[in-house]
Structure formats: structure tokens, C-alpha cells
Write a structure and sequence with these properties.
It is a single chain. The chain is an alpha+beta fold. It has 4 domains: 3-120, Transcription Factor, Stat-4, CATH 1.10.532; 134-313, Up-down Bundle (Glutathione S-transferase Yfyf (Class Pi), Chain A, domain 2); 324-401 and 416-449, Immunoglobulin-like (Sandwich), CATH 2.60.40; 506-669, SHC Adaptor Protein. The chain contains 26 helices and 21 strands. The strands form 6 sheets. The chain has a 5-stranded mixed β-sheet. The protein has a 4-stranded antiparallel β-sheet with strand order 1-3-7-5. Strands 6-4-9-10 form a 4-stranded antiparallel β-sheet. Helix 6 (50-74) runs antiparallel to helix 7 (77-94), helix 13 (255-285) runs antiparallel to helix 14 (293-315) and helix 17 (485-500) packs across helix 20. The chain is elongated, with a radius of gyration of 35 Å. The two termini are 38 Å apart. Residues 405-415, 675-684, 702-723 and 734-743 have low confidence and may be disordered.
């Protein structure tokens, strides 16, 4: 089943998450129509290879054209229109930057895998629960409702100001008419009656002025309360969700809703400002003793300007945190002299600001690093698919400055990976007589000078964003706080769901918890130190917990990804636990686990039964990336042979734990069908005997010593057949020269 087919079967709450990251940059129609083709391409590699990205973009357009021809024959007008629009987008927007579309599609596919993994997990972790709190959802709805009510109130006040203006114009006309009469006419009874009417009209004007000012004051107060409480909390929640998403958590949404609220509030404040300007205009034409306008208007205008300043300052946000395109799943880790991208948005979307705001990017204030590349750009609505007022820096490079002694700064692994920096942005908004200076910063980033530092740098990013919602605590690692074990385990599961498409279940997390703490503990209460996570070596090992886990992630990603996604790799299980699981199973039952003593290794253990009925277990030497580069792991499981003393070589692996036939589990991942045993005379190409790599082990039943696993030996089935015809089992054992394996 294709990944897209699995996505379509998700519950509605997960489908809503999928809907959030498909927009005009990569329309969902294309994802749906070209599902299998899209999933069969290596978009992640293309994201780092411009030539490959260009080829994939051209092929994508060809696929769209083929779909366009098909729907044209079916006369599907709506789909024809959408496909033509998509084709125009692909040709126009990405032709000059094909790697951009590769990054977008790669990210979408990765998010799908993360959501599928989250959907398969029976229980949400504490962090994810907090992000999906029903109280938060209720507050979001309340904010949107109140913003809409404020907008309506401001528009109604516009009508009151217009009525006041019409009433004053009538008063002006009637008053000037009386003033133009001769003195004798002014003493007539009719004129006196008119003067009384004018006095009543003036009283009405005074009442309406006070009423309008009161309504304006109420609108300002409602905006102030909303900004001070719920809107501020909404923005802080969005920033926290962004932090969590950056370290592999659920995709954060809600920025478009916030933009709608910020924009409506800004429009309402500018509307109130115009109303106050109109009152000032009316004041110049008519004033009187006790006139409320000169008393109240200056205070109200000052308050409006103050709210506009604060609204604009809060609306300037980093929409997408700094990230190297070469490592899209490791944001906020930046390598010197390597380009990174970062995107900013102004949540107040006003057409008057298009191309009028120039943003400048800088880094830190300690002068250790500088930014090379285009670091000043104008915000606009044209580059964004949804017409948002944003700017994306795509060609920034951090460069380390030389010290006064002429050498570069300290680049030791701990110094670099625990030293936090900040990318800052500043701009100025000039609108309707207001000049507002805006500043914002990225989340803390870690600078590295070598890719080998990336794992520890990423550990720092994880720990920071897990432990604090402070966006700018650059001295955090001077005294890093402990983390709650339950939250840390949840984040570790996210590393697997976001990076390799399948998270960890409770049993796997239990094993990691025991490895971190050395004991069985309560998740909710245990506090784990930063040193325990990333700096102290595991007991009896030469590496830390994080280095061990990162090596496993790399192994899965590069060599055993399909098997991991299918859920056939138990992975995180101790030697003691695997024996408990296997001891009562049918002989030949095996499981796959990651090595605890070797970095980036995977092994398999199977259960066997001796002639006396005793149960025994056998494990092979862990396969690392070097050996898995030579032979796919699924093929190793298929072709693995054991030579028992005086016996014919046979494959001892029958059932994947608990009772899944091996070929049923792994058959679809075999690179080819195993060759039939043939004699040399059957030949291969050009008279050669066909050869395949076959992993072989030898087990001696009479040995009492722990045995070490076998090496991988190249041997064809034909050679096996010939050897059995001409040599004794003892001679074969000598010929294969493999190590003993038994544990």
C-alpha cells in the first residue's frame, strides 16, 4: 500500500494535520494524482543536488502534462483548470530554484511519515497532549470571535462618526444662516425659536460626541484586553509549538489564524485612528465649553498608537527557523560557510506594506561570526503561496572571524556544540505617519565547523527546546537544567518518527529508559541530567547514550529503512529480555535488535533446542553499515546459513518473533530470488559460475566457551554443491574459515 493510501485512511484529527502543510507551494491534487510516482523518487537527495532536482522538476512537469491530457479527454473542467495552474506554478516559481520544490516535497513526505507513525502509537506523550489541550483550542475560538466582534464594533462606530459629521454640517448650515441675517431679523420670534432649536441640536451634538468617544474608548479597551491576555498567550503557544516541531514533534499550525487576528486588529486600530482624526477635523470647525473632544481625543490617540506599536512588534516573527537545506531534519544547526535558509513573516498583512519593509539579518553581537551573502531583503506578498507578507533568506552563510592572534576561535567539540548563538532581524515600518522599529530573533542556533560535530550539536538543540520556552537564553548551557524522563523519551520517539518514519512503542522506550538510568524508574518523576544524556559515557562503553542512539538512526536511515517502517525490527531490547521472549518459542524463531556494544550495529538472535531438550540461543556479530553496504539486510536474513558439526549448511531463521514466517515478513524486501543450486557446468555468463554473497556461521555443539559471530563470506550455491560432492563436512568447515558464533 502506498504511503498516500495509508494517509487517506487516517482519522480526521490526523487528516487535519496533513491538510496544514499542503498549499499552493505543493498542491494536494498533485500529491493525490501522482502518489506512486512521487513516492518512488529520491526527493531528499535532490534537495542537495541541483542537477538531480532539475531533472526531477522536469519529470514532474511531464507527469502533470500526462495527467492534463487524461483529464482533458474526460472533460473534467475543474481539474483541467487546477492542473494548468499547477503547471504554470512549477515552471514559473521553481525553474530558477529546482532544489526548493525538492525540499518542499521531501518535507511533505517526511511529515506524512511522522503523522502515520503518530497515528500508530496507542498513547500520546505528555508534550503532545499539552500542545493539543482543549483549553487552548477553546481560547483560539474565543480570540477569533472577539476579534470579529471588535471589527464589527469599529465599523459600527464609523457609522456613528458619519452621523455626527452630518449632524454637525446641518448645525453649521443653520447657524451660519442665522448669522447672515440682519440685526432686526434676529430679534423676531421665529429666529428665537430657531435659536432654541440650534441649542437643542448643540446638546445633541455634545451627547453624540461623548457617545462616539465612549464607543471608541470601549473598542480600544477591548483590543487592549485581547492583546494583553488571549492574543499574547496564543502567540506564545504558537512559538512553543514551533519549538517542539523543530525537534521532531507534531507539525505546528495556526499562524494563518494568528495573521488573520493581527491583521483585523490592525485594521480596527487604524480605523479608530481615522475616526479620531475625523473628530479632530470636526473640532476645528466647531467647539464649545465642555467639549469632550479636546479632553479625551489626545489620550485615546496616544493609546491607539501605543497598541499599534505593540501589535506590530509582536507580529514580526520567524516563520521558519534557520536550517541548512543539506540537513532539513536538523534545524538550528549551522555549519560555517554553508548556506542556510530562514523565513520571516509580518502577521499584519496590509497591501500598503508590500515591498516597503526591508529586513536586515545579523548574527550575535560578539563579533565572533558574521553573515555572508544577501542579508538585506524586502518583504513582499508575491513569493508566498498564500500571499503572506514575508521574506525568505536563502543564501546566508555564517563565517567565523579570526581572533586578534590570527587564529580561529576554539572549535573543540564541547565548546562548539554547547555554545548558543542567535540570528537577529531588524526592520522599520512607516505607515500613516507612524514609524515603528521592529526586531526579532531566531531560536538559539549552534555553529559547527565540521559535520562530525552535528550529532552533539543536534543534542544541544533538542535539550534546549525541550527544557525551556525562553527564546533567547544564550547562556543556557552554563547550567543546563535536568529534563523530565517522560518528556525526553517522547522527544526521542519523535526523532525516529520524523527521521526514519516510525516512532518507538512503550517497550522500546522502556529499554531506553533503563539504559539512560541504569534501573527501572517512574517516567513521571525521574529527572535526567544533560551530562547523563550527552556527555557521560555509558557504563563500560567508550561512547555516550546520544552517540549510540544517533548511530542507530543513521543505520536505519541508510540501510534498513523499509524493514524499520514495516515494524519488523524490535531494535531496542536487552540481551536478557530477548531470551525471555524467545525461550518458549518454536525453534528457529528470531528477533532483530540493535547492538548495545557496537555503534550503529544490528544483530539477530534465534532460539534452538538441543537433543536433550535444553533451549539455547545464538546471536551473530552485529552488522554495521560497512557490511550492509555490501549486502542488503533482508537478503542476509534470507540467505544466512549455519554449519553445524557434521551437518549440511542450513538457514536456522524460520519465524520472526512472535510467529511470522520469515519470507512473509521480508519477502517483498528481497533484492532478488535466491539462485537455484547449480553445478559449474551449468555456467553463468562467459563460462563463469554465478556467485552470490552468503553469510555463513559455524556452531560447534561441544564447545563450552562463548562464541563470536561469523564474518560475511562470498560463496555461491554452486560452490556449496561441488564442495558437498568432493569434501567432507570437516574439510568444508576448514575451507570457509569462519569464526564460531554462539551466545
Amino acid at each position: 500500500m502506498s504511503q498516500w493510501s495509508q494517509v487517506q485512511q487516517l482519522e480526521i484529527k490526523f487528516l487535519e494535520q496533513v491538510d496544514q502543510f499542503y498549499d499552493d507551494n505543493f498542491p494536494m491534487e498533485i500529491r493525490h494524482l501522482l502518489a506512486q510516482w512521487i513516492e518512488s523518487q529520491d526527493w531528499e537527495a535532490a534537495a542537495n543536488n541541483e542537477a538531480m532536482a532539475m531533472i526531477l522538476l522536469q519529470n514532474l512537469i511531464i507527469q502533470v502534462d500526462e495527467q492534463l491530457d487524461r483529464v482533458s479527454q474526460e472533460k473534467n473542467l475543474l481539474l483541467i483548470h487546477n492542473l494548468k495552474r499547477v503547471r504554470k506554478l512549477l515552471q514559473g516559481k521553481y525553474h530558477g530554484n529546482p532544489m526548493h520544490i525538492a525540499v518542499i516535497i521531501s518535507n511533505c513526505l517526511r511529515e506524512e511519515r511522522r503523522i502515520l507513525a503518530a497515528a500508530s502509537m496507542p498513547v500520546q506523550g505528555p508534550l503532545e497532549k499539552s500542545l493539543q489541550n482543549s483549553v487552548v483550542s477553546e481560547r483560539q475560538r474565543n480570540v477569533e470571535h472577539k476579534v470579529s466582534a471588535i471589527k464589527n464594533s469599529a465599523q459600527m462606530t464609523d457609522q456613528d462618526v458619519k452621523y455626527l459629521e452630518d449632524l454637525q454640517e446641518e448645525f453649521d448650515f443653520r447657524y451660519k444662516t442665522i448669522q447672515s441675517l440682519e440685526q432686526n431679523d434676529k430679534n423676531s420670534a421665529l429666529i428665537k425659536q430657531e435659536m432654541l432649536a440650534l441649542q437643542a441640536m448643540l446638546n445633541t451634538l455634545d451627547y453624540k460626541r461623548k457617545e462616539v468617544l465612549s464607543k471608541i474608548g470601549r473598542v480600544i479597551h477591548e483590543i487592549d484586553m485581547l492583546m494583553s491576555n488571549m492574543l499574547t498567550e496564543e502567540l506564545l503557544d504558537w512559538k512553543r509549538r514551533q519549538q517542539i516541531a523543530c525537534i521532531g514533534g507534531p507539525l505546528h499550525g495556526g499562524l494563518d489564524q494568528l495573521q488573520n487576528c493581527f491583521t483585523l486588529l490592525a485594521e480596527s486600530l487604524f480605523q479608530v485612528r481615522r475616526q479620531l482624526e475625523k473628530l479632530d477635523e470636526l473640532l476645528t470647525r466647531l467647539t464649545y465649553d465642555g467639549d469632550p473632544i479636546p479632553v479625551q481625543r489626545p489620550q485615546l490617540l496616544e493609546k491607539v498608537n501605543f497598541l499599534l506599536y505593540n501589535l506590530f512588534r509582536n507580529s514580526f516573527v520567524v516563520e521558519r527557523q534557520p536550517c541548512m537545506p543539506t540537513h532539513p531534519q536538523r534545524p538550528m544547526v549551522l555549519k560555517t560557510l554553508i548556506q542556510f535558509t530562514v523565513k520571516l513573516r509580518l502577521l499584519i498583512k496590509l497591501p500598503e506594506l508590500n515591498y516597503q519593509i526591508r529586513v536586515k539579518a545579523t548574527i550575535d553581537n560578539n563579533r565572533r561570526f558574521v553573515l555572508c551573502g544577501t542579508h538585506v531583503k524586502a518583504m513582499n506578498m508575491d513569493e508566498s503561496a498564500n500571499g503572506n507578507l514575508s521574506v525568505e533568506f536563502r543564501h546566508l552563510q555564517p563565517k567565523e572571524m579570526k581572533t586578534s592572534a590570527g587564529s580561529k576561535g576554539n572549535e573543540g567539540p564541547h565548546m562548539v556544540t554547547e555554545e548558543l548563538h542567535s540570528i537577529s532581524f531588524e526592520t522599520q515600518v512607516c505607515l500613516y505617519g507612524l514609524t515603528i522599529n521592529l526586531e526579532t530573533s531566531s531560536l538559539p542556533v549552534v555553529m559547527i565547523s565540521n559535520v562530525s560535530q552535528l550529532p552533539n550539536a543536534w543534542a544541544s538543540i533538542i535539550w534546549y527546546n525541550l527544557s525551556t520556552n525562553d527564546p533567547q537564553n544564550l547562556s543556557f548551557f552554563n547550567n543546563p537544567p535536568a529534563a523530565t524522563l517522560s518528556q525526553l523519551l517522547e522527544v526521542l520517539s519523535w526523532q525516529f518518527s520524523s527521521y526514519v518514519g516510525r516512532g518507538l512503542n512503550s517497550e522500546q522506550l522502556n529499554m531506553l529508559a533503563e539504559k539512560l538510568t541504569g534501573q527501572q524508574v517512574s517516567y513521571n518523576d525521574y529527572q535526567l541530567s544533560w551530562a547523563k544524556f550527552c556527555k557521560e559515557h555509558l557504563p563500560g562503553k567508550s561512547f555516550t547514550f546520544w552517540v549510540w542512539l544517533e548511530a542507530i538512526l543513521d543505520l536505519i536511515k541508510k540501510h534498513i529503512l523499509p524493514l524499520w517502517i514495516d515494524g519488523y525490527i524490535m531494535g531496542f531490547v536487552s540481551k536478557e529480555k530477548e531470551r525471555i521472549l524467545l525461550k518458549d518459542k518454536t525453534p528457529g524463531t528470531f528477533l532483530l535488535r540493535f547492538s548495545e556494544s557496537n555503534l550503529g550495529g544490528i544483530t539477530f538472535t534465534w532460539v534452538d533446542q538441543l537433543e536433550n531438550g535444553d533451549v539455547t540461543f545464538h546471536s551473530v556479530e552485529p552488522y554495521n553499515k560497512g557490511r550492509l553496504s555490501a549486502l542488503p539486510f533482508a537478503d542476509i536474513l534470507r540467505d544466512y546459513k549455519v554449519i553445524m558439526a557434521d551437518n549440511v549448511p542450513e538457514n536456522p531463521l524460520k519465524y520472526l518473533y512472535p510467529d511470522i514466517p520469515k519470507d512473509k515478513a521480508f519477502g517483498k524486501h528481497y533484492s532478488c530470488q535466491p539462485n537455484e543450486v547449480s553445478k559449474p557446468s551449468d555456467g553463468g555468463g562467459k563460462g563463469y559460475v554465478p556467485s552470490v554473497f552468503i553469510p555463513v556461521s559455524k556452531i560447534l555443539n561441544d564447545s563450552t566457551e562463548p562464541h563470536s559471530p561469523s564474518d560475511l563470506l562470498p560463496m555461491s550455491p554452486s560452490v556449496y554443491a561441488v564442495l558437498r560432492e568432493h569434501l567432507s563436512p570437516t574439510a568444508i568447515e576448514t575451507a570457509v574459515s569462519c569464526k564460531l558464533s554462539h551466545s
